[in-house]
């Protein structure tokens, strides 16, 4: 016994690592074993590993012999080890050598076996832990385990045990769904043989793994076209008609295997590779297109599927073949549906990917010849040509716009005649209204194009001419040609036009002219009767001018009759030039100009070009009003401009000036040529007046030597606008033109257009700077984000782009708008949108664009004057009272509101329908003035709304309404909303009914709670068909009001409900700035930045728009986000085919690279990309001179200006003017 105990002690003390099996009892009874050897991680049964290693070579044979009994596998031994006996010191020589040889053989055999059986390591587990499903295991009742107690060894080793980490593998075989997951196990073994990515045991450090979930080979396998995937196919449902009130019960006890096998729930599974899917879907599309050839959705889906095929093809040739197939599909679709515009646009987009520019434009022209009355096709064609840098020229674009307007105007006239012949009202016909609205949009695009190209005077004149021609025209039944001839008489006259001081309108002016003409005729008749007899001949002044012109023409004819060639005339002029050379040199020396210096010296200083661009921007800002020619006061501003032209002649050649009735200018190389006789290099100007027909932007004389004529662009003649005028008959199109005019010149008007409207989309896409309405939203976001930041390290878009508008120009524009709207109110009386716009314009004009600097309402005098003319204008009272409240005059506002509401019953029935608007405005005004729930304003608001709900006559507030009055109001609102259900279901929604819904919701919010208010709005939305919601600006206003209520009570609202509401709203109105503002404000407070970024990225991918990118970029700029994130946002936005033509995004990108990223070289690259995508934007070109002066050389700036002239952008300033400022001095 003593010897046995000594031997056991020797075994325990001499063995350091357990290598042979021992009983668990001996291991537990041993007290001298080191404590760290008791860790359970060292108690793993190595026989399991040995069995897995020995079975690897038989892996292939095992897969082929699956039918054999699996009970033949080796049974794992108990999880215990025996300690090795230490060898005796005297017998250690030969025994140690023999054991060493055996150990080497076992090691080599074990290493080779482990290479083939790595997958079996999944079966190696710790003792006492549920094993993973293996090939030999049977399906148990519970194949998953909860680690409720945890493994303490994880704390000791600092990580999970490798055998406890689940392995994820891609499974593509249908056998994966066999019981016990045997197929998954086999697939894991096959994958381990392919790429050694199995979770190998850490006992052998030579075996390294590639990744836990994915590796390069698995990714390549996933993308392989022959990889078969499981596809679950749902069988067609039975066509049994089930009543709507019947709720069928489904069998929820169906097993998973039955569902996968397709034995229940009408489904089946099949394996399908990418090539199989292509063949299957192609067959399906072919079948559907044959059965439904006139369904455009099938053809468009078929074409989109070709794009998906092309994205999976790495070879360029294969992609071109797929593109040809797509084109053939669309050609067949357009052949069967020749009038479908969506198919035509899709076909033209496919042509653009294949054809050259000239061929592509030719295809467009053929399409437009066949569909000349399509607004969508004309709009897309103009976008395409305007964005082609190589073909872009201002004169060419004007011709295309003229063709588009004339074609659409002819289509409107044709449709008008057809409806009129059918004895219907053309002004209410939907087809006529749609065509005229499209015509107004094309005209608006033309005005934007002229303004952004630098021709601000022409854009203003176009608006003036169209408003006079369509809205203020005389009520005469004239043909279009006769109407234009009559309008030419008005335009060339000395009468003031719309927006100018003293303007009367074309109709009133014509009446005045007719009255004055008849008065003159009566006076002449009276004079003839009084005098009697012959008094001699007398020539009027106009006759004398005609005689002078005849003499001039006779002189020219004499020159032609005497066969005097142009060269002889040039020689004579040169001799006259030499006679005055000394006088010219003397004058130039007095001006400080070196005569011997070259005229065309290259400007080598970039600061000169920077000053030139600043002067050019200043002139663009100031020169936007057309100039009248025959009014002495209006023609006076031309003199300084004309004098600069004379200075230019002195620099470039020779000039002679005679200050007399006739101006004579002779120059050897004329730059400024408003001439009657055009010669190759010289000009003579005789009997020149500022209203000559040769002056105007539409008469551009392009010589082969690229000689540019500087013209008096401030003078806009009838010929400059005659091609773009058209008549409008529908009230919707006429008021739309006026609203666009107000918005174009910066007027503030209420929401009148849905953000899903194509006009709104075009407006946002064509922005060059951040407008006022968007600045307010971004400022709100900036305030919310900066409140929670300890240090302000961000920027805003408004600061990034600098001052977008000049205050003096905005002030003049407000005066111009005030005059124009006041004149147009005669055509649209009692329009509260126009009345609010004119009062706001009056406020901004009188306060010099700073409304906060005045305590007295500036528009009070104008509002009282308008009310004096029409005392029954109920909405004007409401608009005026709101303006008084904005300036803090709440008592005066209350008196105006009380007066209006008290007089409702005495008004006609049609005017009483507007009462809900007044009630709602009054209640909102009171709430905006209240400071708490117990304030007097809150009680006043409840009183106002209770009067509206109960239907009683309004009385000024004296005390809080009783409970009975509140109950009556509650029931009254319910009844009135119920009466709106039929009209709203038909899509008849107006501002008055929307105000009634908002008033009911506000009443419930103040009396019952915000939950009841939300229920009222939800009920209102349920009364409208879903397709009607996306095109109504009233419903969009209602949804924005719904979100404001939720945002006001966001602390009591679940975040999920709020985000769900915003998500729903953005799906309906994806370009709404109000929704994006609410999303950023709430998400910033209650979610992490990553969540908000993912939401914005999701919307930018699904429905990309300029609005979502502006808010995403603003959020990152204000928070001081990562440069990689901001770069990615800009690049993703500008990679879109539509958004790449957004000038605002390009300007923001350039400003970001310069001011924040401090990377001028990157800004230079972005700038050249920008002018290539948007060549019409003069402001974008000038950004290169102003912002890139550190990276652009003087030669590059000179070349840029030359390209601007080549593209026919309006360059107002010559570089020599800047040089003369340095030479002449003050």
UniProtKB/TrEMBL annotation:
Regions of compositional bias (Acidic residues) in chain numbering: 1-10
Keywords assigned: Nucleus
Family membership noted in the UniProt record: Belongs to the NRDE2 family.
Biased composition regions of type Low complexity, renumbered to the chain: 13-30
InterPro entries: HAT, NRDE-2, TPR-like_helical_dom_sf
Name of protein: Protein NRDE2 homolog
Region (Disordered): 1-30, 61-120
GO annotation terms (biological process): negative regulation of RNA catabolic process; regulatory ncRNA-mediated heterochromatin formation; RNA processing
Compartments, as annotated in UniProt: Nucleus
Biased composition (Basic residues): 99-110
Primary localisation category: nucleus
UniProt keyword Nucleus present: yes
Domain of life of the source: Eukaryota
GO CC terms of this entry: catalytic step 2 spliceosome
Compositionally biased region (Polar residues): 71-87
């Amino acid at each position: 016994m003593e010897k046995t105990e000594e031997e056991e002690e020797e075994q325990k003390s001499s063995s350091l690592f357990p290598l042979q099996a021992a009983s668990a009892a001996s291991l537990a009874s041993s007290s001298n074993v080191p404590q760290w050897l008791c860790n359970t991680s060292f108690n793993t049964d190595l026989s399991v590993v040995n069995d897995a290693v020995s079975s690897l070579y038989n892996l292939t044979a095992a897969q082929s012999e699956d039918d054999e009994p699996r009970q033949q596998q080796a049974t794992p031994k108990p999880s215990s080890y025996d300690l090795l006996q230490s060898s005796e010191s005297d017998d250690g020589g030969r025994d140690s050598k023999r054991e060493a040889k055996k150990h080497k053989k076992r090691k080599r055999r074990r290493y080779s076996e482990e290479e083939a059986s790595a997958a079996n390591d999944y079966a190696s587990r710790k003792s006492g832990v549920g094993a993973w499903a293996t090939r030999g295991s049977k399906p148990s009742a519970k194949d998953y385990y909860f680690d409720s107690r945890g493994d303490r060894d994880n704390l000791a080793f600092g990580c999970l045990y490798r055998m406890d980490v689940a392995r994820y593998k891609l499974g593509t075989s249908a056998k994966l769904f066999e019981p016990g997951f045997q197929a998954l196990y086999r697939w894991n073994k096959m994958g381990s043989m392919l790429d050694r990515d199995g979770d190998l045991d850490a006992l052998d450090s030579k075996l390294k793994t590639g990744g836990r979930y994915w590796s390069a080979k698995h990714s390549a396998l996933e993308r392989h076209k022959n990889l078969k995937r499981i596809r679950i196919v749902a069988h067609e449902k039975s066509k049994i008609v089930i009543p709507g009130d019947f709720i069928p019960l489904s069998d929820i006890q169906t097993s998973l295997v039955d569902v996968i096998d397709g034995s229940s729930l009408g489904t089946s599974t099949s394996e399908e590779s990418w090539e199989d899917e292509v063949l299957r879907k192609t067959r399906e599309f072919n079948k559907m297109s044959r059965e439904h050839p006139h369904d455009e959705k099938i053809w468009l889906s078929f074409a989109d599927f070709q794009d998906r095929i092309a994205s999976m093809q790495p070879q360029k040739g294969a992609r071109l073949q797929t593109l040809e197939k797509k084109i053939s599909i669309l050609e067949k679709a357009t052949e069967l549906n020749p009038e479908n515009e969506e198919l035509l646009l899709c076909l033209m987009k496919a042509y653009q990917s294949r054809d050259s520019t000239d061929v592509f434009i030719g295809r467009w022209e053929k399409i437009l010849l066949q569909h000349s009355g399509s607004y969508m096709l004309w709009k897309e064609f103009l976008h395409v040509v305007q964005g082609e840098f190589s073909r872009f020229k201002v004169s060419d674009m004007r011709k295309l716009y003229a063709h588009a307007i004339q074609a659409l105007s002819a289509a409107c006239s044709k449709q008008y005649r057809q409806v009129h012949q059918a004895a219907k009202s053309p002004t209410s016909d939907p087809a006529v209204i749609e065509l005229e609205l499209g015509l107004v949009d094309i005209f608006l695009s033309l005005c934007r194009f002229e303004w952004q190209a630098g021709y601000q005077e022409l854009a203003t004149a176009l608006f003036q001419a169209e408003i006079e021609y369509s809205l203020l025209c005389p009520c005469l039944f004239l043909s279009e040609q006769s109407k234009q001839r009559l309008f030419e008489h008005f335009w060339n006259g000395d009468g003031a036009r719309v927006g100018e001081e003293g303007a009367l309108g074309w109709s009133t002016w014509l009446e005045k002219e007719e009255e004055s003409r008849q008065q003159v005729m009566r006076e002449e008749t009276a004079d003839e009767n009084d005098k009697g007899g012959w008094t001699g001949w007398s020539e009027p002044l106009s006759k004398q001018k005609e005689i002078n012109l005849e003499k001039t023409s006779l002189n020219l004819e004499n020159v032609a009759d005497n066969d005097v060639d142009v060269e002889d005339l040039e020689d004579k002029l040169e001799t006259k030039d030499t006679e005055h050379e000394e006088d010219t040199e003397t004058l130039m020396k007095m001006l400080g100009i070196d005569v011997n210096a070259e005229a065309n010296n290259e400007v080598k200083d970039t600061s000169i070009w920077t000053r030139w661009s600043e002067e050019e921007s200043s002139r663009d800002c100031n020169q936007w009003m057309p100039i009248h020619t025959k009014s002495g006061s209006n023609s006076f501003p031309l003199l300084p401009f004309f004098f600069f032209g004379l200075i230019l002649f002195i620099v470039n050649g020779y000039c002679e000036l005679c200050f007399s009735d006739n101006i004579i200018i002779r120059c050897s190389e004329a730059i400024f040529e408003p001439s009657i006789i055009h010669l190759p290099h010289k000009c003579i100007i005789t009997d020149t007046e500022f209203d000559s027909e040769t002056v105007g932007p539409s008469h551009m004389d392009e010589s082969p030597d690229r000689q540019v004529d500087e013209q008096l662009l401030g003078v806009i003649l009838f010929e400059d606008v005659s091609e773009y005028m058209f008549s409008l008959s529908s009230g919707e199109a006429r008021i739309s033109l006026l609203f666009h005019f107000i918005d174009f010149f910066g007027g503030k008007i209420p929401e009148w257009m849905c953000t899903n409207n194509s006009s709104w989309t075009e407006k946002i896409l064509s922005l060059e700077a951040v407008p006022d309405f968007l600045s307010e939203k971004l400022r709100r976001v900036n305030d919310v984000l900066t409140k929670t930041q300890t240090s302000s390290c961000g920027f805003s878009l408004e600061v990034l782009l600098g001052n977008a508008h000049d205050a003096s120009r905005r002030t003049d524009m407000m005066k111009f708008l005030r005059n124009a709207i006041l004149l147009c109110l005669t055509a649209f009386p009692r329009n509260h949108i126009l009345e609010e716009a004119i009062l706001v314009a009056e406020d901004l004009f009188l306060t010099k664009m700073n409304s906060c600097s005045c305590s007295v309402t500036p528009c009070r005098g104008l509002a009282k004057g308008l009310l004096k003319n029409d005392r029954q204008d109920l909405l004007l009272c409401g608009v005026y009272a709101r303006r008084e409240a904005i300036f803090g005059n709440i008592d005066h506002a209350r008196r105006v509101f009380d007066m209006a509401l008290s007089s409702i019953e005495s008004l006609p029935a049609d005017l009483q329908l507007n009462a809900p608007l007044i009630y709602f405005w009054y209640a909102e005004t009171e709430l905006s003035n209240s400071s708490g729930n117990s304030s007097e304003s809150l009680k006043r608001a409840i009183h106002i709304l209770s009067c509206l709900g109960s239907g009683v006559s309004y009385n000024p507030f004296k005390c809080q309404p009783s409970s009975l009055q509140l109950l009556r109001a509650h029931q009254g609102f319910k009844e009135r909303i119920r009466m709106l259900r039929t009209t709203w279901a038909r899509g008849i929604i107006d501002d008055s009914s929307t105000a009634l819904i908002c008033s009911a919701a506000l009443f419930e919010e103040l009396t019952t709670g915000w939950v009841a208010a939300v229920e009222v709005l939800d009920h209102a939305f349920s009364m409208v068909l879903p397709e009607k919601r996306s095109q109504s600006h009233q419903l969009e206003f209602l949804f924005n009001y719904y979100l404001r209520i939720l945002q006001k009570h966001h602390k009591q609202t679940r975040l999920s409900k709020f985000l769900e509401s915003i998500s729903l709203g953005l799906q309906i109105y994806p370009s709404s700035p109000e929704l994006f503002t609410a999303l950023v404000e709430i998400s910033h407070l209650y979610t992490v930045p990553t969540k908000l970024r993912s939401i914005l990225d999701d919307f930018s991918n699904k429905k990309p728009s300029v609005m979502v990118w502006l808010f995403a970029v603003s959020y990152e700029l204000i928070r001081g986000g990562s440069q990689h994130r901001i770069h990615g946002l800009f690049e993703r936005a500008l990679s879109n085919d539509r958004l790449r033509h957004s000038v605002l995004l390009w300007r923001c990108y350039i400003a970001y690279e310069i001011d924040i990223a401090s990377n001028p070289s990157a800004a230079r690259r972005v700038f050249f990309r920008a002018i290539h995508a948007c060549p019409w934007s003069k402001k974008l070109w000038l950004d290169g001179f102003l912002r890139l002066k550190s990276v652009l050389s003087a030669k590059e700036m000179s070349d840029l200006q030359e390209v601007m002239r080549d593209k026919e952008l309006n360059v107002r300033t010559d570089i020599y003017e800047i040089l003369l400022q340095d030479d002449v001095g003050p």
